[in-house]
Design goal:
Elements: H1 8-20, H2 40-44, E1 50-52, H3 61-73, E2 78-81, H4 83-95, E3 102-104, E4 113-117, H5 120-123, E5 133-141, H6 146-151, E6 155-162, E7 165-166, H7 171-177, E8 179-184, E9 191-196, E10 202-205, H8 220-237
Parallel strand pairs: 1-2, 2-10, 3-4
Antiparallel strand pairs: 4-7, 5-6, 5-8, 8-9, 9-10
Helix pairs in contact: 1-8, 3-4
Length: about 240
């Protein structure tokens, strides 16, 4: 990562979460452009948790997908924010559902399996700024999910800044294979949170939780992610 300042809110959220967990979080920046299937273990094998950060465009996206495949298969705690969540959806589509050409239309406009797509009502808005989902939106969390245990409540609000969404045409297929939509926008039915059923901690949010974390109120997603990384580290040393 060349610009740690661009992720300052995320780093500060880790400081808040570390304080809550009574530990110091050591953050290592890794360029996804340098990650490939043949070196992913060497690059990530020593980590206790992996966050795939927000971003725009195609730069480093295949490295992000290779990263997510590795952490998913090796039960390493994973947290995806915005594009990080979308990459998790793409990776699962390609490697679990067998949709080899699964992609986001942000990068591949005519993708055969557009698992991440711009919704129809957004396509009608010509002004690019207008197509973004900006600001605070409600989210209903399903009981019995990892997300519910993290937040401890069924109704939350989170801040957004993005244009592309989980394509609900594929939702049934994903859920049957073990990727659950645990958070849904009650007004639009858009997927806000995905998680894996059979993984110690694999959560992706379409929103930006780092924008709400404070010293007094560390964000629960960061707190529980750090706790999961600590648990993973403990098991690794035993």
């Amino acid at each position: 990562m060349e610009l740690p300042d661009a992720y300052k809110s995320i780093i500060e959220s880790f400081v808040h979460a570390g304080s809550k967990n009574e530990c110091k979080v050591r953050v290592e920046y890794i360029h996804s452009e340098g990650i490939f299937p043949d070196n992913v273990k060497e690059k990530l094998g020593h980590l206790h948790g992996v966050l795939v950060a927000p971003g725009f465009g195609s730069r480093g996206i295949e490295g992000k997908i290779d990263t997510i495949k590795y952490v998913r298969e090796n039960n390493i705690p994973f947290f995806g924010i915005c594009l990080g969540m979308q990459c998790a959806v793409i990776e699962f589509g390609r490697n679990v559902l067998g949709l080899k050409d699964a992609h986001t239309t942000e990068i591949e406009a005519d993708a055969k399996n557009p698992v991440i797509n711009m919704m129809e009502e957004q396509k009608n808005i010509v002004n690019m700024g207008g197509t973004m989902r900006l600001g605070s939106y409600p989210c209903d969390i399903k009981k019995g999910t990892k997300a519910f245990s993290i937040y401890g409540k069924a109704h939350i609000n989170e801040r957004h800044r993005h244009r592309y969404e989980f394509n609900n045409d594929y939702l049934k297929q994903y859920e049957e294979a073990g990727m659950i939509a645990s958070g849904i926008n009650p007004q639009t039915n858009l997927v806000e949170i995905v998680e894996l059923k059979n993984h110690p901690f694999f959560v992706g949010g379409q929103f930006h939780p780092e924008l709400k974390s404070t010293v007094a109120n560390p964000h629960p997603l960061f707190v529980k992610f750090v706790a999961a990384a600590m648990e993973f580290a403990k098991k690794k040393t035993n």
